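User: Here's a chain of 170 residues. Predict its fold as tokens.
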Amino acid sequence: MIDICLIAAVAENRVIGNGQVLPWKIPSDLKYFRDLTMGKPIIMGRLTYDSVGSPLPGRKNIVVSRRSNLDIENTIVVRSIEDAIKVGRQESQLLGVKDLFVVGGAQIYEDALKFCSRIYITEVHDSPQGNILFPEVDWTLWKETSRQYHGPENSQPAYSFVVYEEKSSI
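Assistant: Prediction complete.
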């Protein structure tokens, strides 16, 4: 069984981005993301890929794009979230891992939510300006299974690493 996991950093006002940049700098969140996703397939939309600029190393990158002629070196390009999940499951099995991660952006998160059994959220305890929002989630369908609070430090806001499991899969 391959678990489809969503991973995102989300502010209190649901902001996840401002243009093609994160509206905060939290190095430990980037480390958390890297540690969870390393060695596993990741799914992202083309705009998220463009903001990153290259395939993330140590992971099988799968990019969802409507562009039929898009070709990205060392990356699998598919046309839909359903195709991405199908390919991601196959890649997870080939790699011998049990997780497949959805890493953004907003539309990909929204499209993938119905397939996910686990959500890793870095709750950023701030409300920055931003024009890219995390989708609305019916949190009554999810159970919080883990929370680690980290206070503000230097110029970075407080944040919490939170894990949710889909209630129907518990």
